[in-house]
Design a protein that fits this description.
It is a single chain. Helix content is 45%, strand content 20%. It has 243 residues and is an alpha+beta fold. The chain has two domains: 59 residues, Winged helix-like DNA-binding domain superfamily/Winged helix DNA-binding domain (Arc Repressor Mutant, subunit A, Orthogonal Bundle), CATH 1.10.10.10; 169 residues, GAF domain (Beta-Lactamase), CATH 3.30.450.40. Strands 5-4-3-8-7-6 form a six-stranded antiparallel β-sheet, sandwiched between helices. Helix 2 crosses helix 3 and helix 5 packs antiparallel against helix 9. The longest helix is centred in the C-terminal third of the chain and has 21 residues.
Length: 243
Amino acid sequence: MLERLAASPGGLALSEIAEQADLAPSTTHRLLQALQSQGFVTQDNELGLWKIDVKTFRIGNSFLEARDFVGASRPFLRRLTVQTGETANLGIRDGSTAVFLAQSESPQMMRMITRLGSRAPLHASGVGKALMAWLPDDEFERVLTERGLTRVTENTLYTPESLREELARIRREGYACDREEHAIGLHCVAACLHDEHGIPLAAISVSGPVARIPETRLGELGELVRETAAEISARLGGRVPEA
């Protein structure tokens, strides 16, 4: 229920929560009241909609504080925004999706904004592909089995063969490109942060409209993001594994 509410900032009615959580309305109401008494959810008195409350935010924030790479990355995200004029993001892998945890917004009027906590398929996003590139073969196969390769846009890589070729290129070049694969009109470049064992911790990205990030600029931004990711990894005592 908390996941459903977190994905709906405007709130949900009791009937909607019950339907989405596949619970009886009476059970749903009892659980919501229990969560409300502990400060995890709140109910809008006028509309009757249920929403996430402050205690859930505090717990989520404690997760960010415990993961040093999030705080360590923030100055670098801001620097990327200054250098590129575009929005910079940080995301982690959660199963077969990428979850966005931090962002430095572009000052441009037309810009890419991702709500923190939102998700994107690994195979159809820059951050996701950057993380996916370093998965062991068995984990890669597990992701394919769990989610498949749904076409989000007409440009999404949707066959295992094309995705494997792309992931091999990412390992060679050190950065991933999203060419309108998650949203038409949006380009993105991303690179991984690694721990001391070379295991991916997270990925950072720079995203913006195709009008400002054309194909000819992807390589330049890719190198910048790759170098920045390596700098953050080094700051955390990590290392970039060999392709």
